[in-house]
Amino acid sequence: QDQDQGFWAKYGNYFIRGAIYTLVFAVLTVLFGTIIGTLLALMKLSRNWLAKVVANIYIEFIRGTPLLVQAFIVFFGTQILGLDLSAFVAGAIAMAINSGAYVAEIIRGGINSVPVGQTEAARSLGLHQSQAMRYVILPQAMKNIWPALGNEFVTDIKESSVLSVIGATELMFEGTVVQGASFKPFLPLVVVAILYFIMTFTLSRLLRLIEKRFN
Ligand code: ARG
């Protein structure tokens, strides 16, 4: 009992700091992932074949390789290039690059889910292609895009645990630090798991609430 109180007093802050960084990574990833993903989706839907090919290669390659490998490549690759990025910056970049590919497919799928008839109707009413996209297609596409982006947010909370391998401070990494410092291999992992669950569960409930408001 005494020992356990010592555990929380000693290591509680590690977990809290880890959880905060995990949320920071997830927020940054959703933000920059959405920017990259939107650009890629527009490239893929454009009539420029070069833009299409580049976007396709990016999306296929990123989705076809593990985030684990990508994180290492960004971290050590930038070192070879002479850039001295912190694990935090390298990790955030790797996550954004990775998430962008998935977000691109979310956005493209959302836009494609709107029936062609909607475009045709808008065009026959005299709207330009870009006006039709902006006022008719996108508002309807958002219905599918929004929940999927929410899922991506939840996924990013969990996937950021991969960044522990490059030594980025986040929840999983802090868990391994506590494992080493406390000589307890099991308890820190249970704490980490519970904290991840609290974050993902709360977030998905929150997103569901917002979604209901939207509809
Ligand atoms: N576990 C996958 C990997 O190792 C990453 C999946 C990322 N998914 C996402 N929706 N951002 O590549």
List its traits.
215 residues, mainly alpha
Low-confidence stretches: none
Task: Tell me the β content.
Answer: under 5%
Small molecules in complex: arginine
Query: What characterizes the major β-sheet?
Result: none
Number of strands: 0
Shape: flat
Structural class determined from secondary elements: mainly alpha
Distance between the terminal alpha carbons, to the nearest Å?
50 Å
Instruction: Kindly report the average pLDDT value.
Output: 95
Element-level helix/strand string: HHHHHHHH
Share in helix = over 70%
Indicate the radius of gyration in whole angstroms.
Answer: 21 Å
Number of helices: 8
Explain this structure to me?
The protein has 215 residues and is mostly helical. Helix content is 83%, strand content 0%. Helix 2 packs across helix 4 and helix 7 runs antiparallel to helix 8. The model has no long low-confidence stretch (mean pLDDT 95). Arginine binds next to helix 3, helix 4 and helix 6.
Q: What is this structure's SSE topology?
A:
Blueprint: H1 2-45, H2 49-63, H3 67-80, H4 87-112, H5 116-124, H6 129-159, H7 171-182, H8 187-214
The structure holds arginine (ARG).
The site of arginine has 9 residues, from helix 3, helix 4 and helix 6.
